[in-house]
Specification:
Blueprint (H helix, E strand, L loop, with lengths): L2 H17 L1 H10 L20 H6 L13 E6 L9 E5 H17 L7 E4 L8 H12 L2 E4 L5 H10 L4 E5 H14 L9 E5 L5 H11 L2 E8 L2 E9 L6 E3 L4 E6 L13 E7 L10 E7 L1 E2 L11 E2 L4 E2 L4 E3 L2 E3 L1 H9 L4 E12 L2 E10 L5 H15 L5 E6 L13 E3 L4
Parallel strand pairs: 3-4, 3-5, 5-6, 6-7, 18-21, 19-20
Antiparallel strand pairs: 1-2, 7-8, 8-9, 9-14, 10-11, 11-12, 12-15, 13-14, 16-17, 18-19
Helix pairs in contact: 1-2, 4-5, 7-8
Family: Belongs to the phenylacetyl-CoA ligase family.
Protein name: Phenylacetate-coenzyme A ligase
GO molecular function: nucleotide binding; phenylacetate-CoA ligase activity
Length: about 400
């Protein structure tokens, strides 16, 4: 932690204690006062904040300024309970816009570019984040929103779009449609800025080759502004995050202790300047690591690695914990297997049943691949499963995020 970050951290700590009823109660419950933090080492005394805490503050319990200063709200989906509503002041919006503008600049986007924005607008942060950052840069925004692939492709061709903003799932769908329709020569695309979900190397390769573009991984979450808090540069050796706005920690998800730089763990973020809904040590559940040293690009913003997965993505099957990233890595090592897969978990009596369906590349031996993948799964992960190879394009595609694991055991 730099001296400037520590000063901002202490200021935010005092702000949260004095102006956020949510944090005042949290500090009271654990007997903590701002003056108890006397050095960066004392930060670990501050309790973590989790999404479960934020849901209890629904609808506007996180607000830390008078309502007259709130100019906008955004929200999580609320698929597992009350949504989390994040209020923003005008300064919060401006700060987020500045960070997203930096993301575009780091990716080499200029005012001469035309950016087609396919993530959703409304309560979700993605679409409007892509748009306001684009406009701040001076590039031309083409705010399509999700879906309507026919129109997306028409606008991409007619508007000579040079930059695509998208989830990886929708970027793959577009890449497949471009190839199927023979549109590649009609496109002016140069770059793709892709976020909102973890994506495998095989998926990156298919998108990159299908659209003939350079891909940049962007990161963010609604609770912490939205997308645009970090991005990888042309070196593609980690994502630069903006330490003048955010303090990143990597913690052991089991113990909550900080791990050494370079070790994987869970990202916890403190917003150093946020006014509307400041967050201290917010557990994102996203798994990554901090990358020591300076990037070869010359920028001084620190870096974290690509998102490995989420701590809450782990499922237990036949007594074994399985993470989607393990399946990604396994399939990556089998020649002839494509990027797309889907897992179904059911019960047969009292026993777990797992079916792994994956797409095979054109001309591949489906039965042979099933044997290879089944054997590799048993060797590396330790359990026998049912394996089904299907032709390329047989699994469903998503215009938003792809759900890889469908756990039907307890329905």
């Amino acid at each position: 932690m730099t001296e400037t970050q520590y000063r901002l951290f202490l200021k935010q700590l005092r702000n949260a204690y004095e102006n956020s009823a949510f944090y005042r109660q949290k500090f009271t419950d654990c007997g903590l006062l701002p003056e108890d933090i006397k050095s960066p080492e004392d930060i670990k005394k501050i309790p973590f904040t989790d999404k479960t805490d934020l849901r209890k503050a629904y609808p506007l319990g996180l607000m830390a300024v008078p309502e007259e200063r709130i100019v906008r709200i955004h929200s999580t989906s609320g698929t597992t309970g009350d949504p989390v509503i994040i209020p923003y002041t005008a300064q919060d919006v401006a700060d987020w816009c500045e960070m997203f503008k930096r993301c575009y600049e780091i990716a080499g986007v200029t005012a001469a570019d035309r950016v087609q924005i396919t993530p959703g607008f409304g309560l979700w942060t993605a679409g409007i984040g892509f748009q306001t950052g684009c406009e701040a840069l001076g590039a031309m925004a083409v705010p399509m929103g999700p879906g309507n692939t026919e129109k997306q492709l028409k606008m991409m061709v007619d508007m000579k779009t040079t930059v695509l903003g998208s989830t990886s799932s929708y970027a793959l769908l577009l890449a497949e449609q471009v190839q199927e329709r023979g549109l590649l020569e009609s496109l002016a695309l140069k770059k793709g800025i892709i976020g909102s979900e973890r994506w495998s190397d095989k998926m990156r390769k298919r998108i990159r080759e299908g659209l003939d573009i350079e891909l940049f991984d962007i990161y963010g979450l609604t609770e912490i502004y939205g997308p645009g808090i970090s991005i990888d540069c042309g070196q593609h050796s980690g994502l630069h995050y903006f330490d003048d706005f955010l303090y990143f920690e990597i913690i052991d998800p089991e113990t909550g202790e900080n791990v050494p730089d370079g070790a994987y763990g869970e990202i916890a973020i403190t917003t150093l300047r946020k006014e509307g809904a400041p967050l201290l040590r917010y557990r994102t559940h996203d798994m990554s690591r901090l990358l020591p040293g300076k990037c070869a690009c010359g920028r001084t913003y620190p870096r974290h690695d690509r998102i490995l997965g989420r701590t809450d993505d782990v499922v237990k099957v036949k007594g074994v914990n399985i993470h989607p990233s393990q399946i990604d890595i396994l399939l990556k090592g089998v020649e002839g297997v494509s990027s797309e897969y889907m897992v179904s978990l059911t019960k047969e009596g009292s026993k777990d049943k797992m079916i792994l369906r994956f797409e095979a590349e054109e001309g591949a031996d489906l039965r042979g691949l099933e044997q290879l993948v089944g054997h590799a799964f048993k060797q590396r992960i330790g359990i026998r499963i049912n394996v089904e190879a299907v032709p390329l394009g047989a699994l469903p595609r998503s215009e938003k995020k792809t759900k890889r694991i469908h756990d039907l055991r307890y329905q």
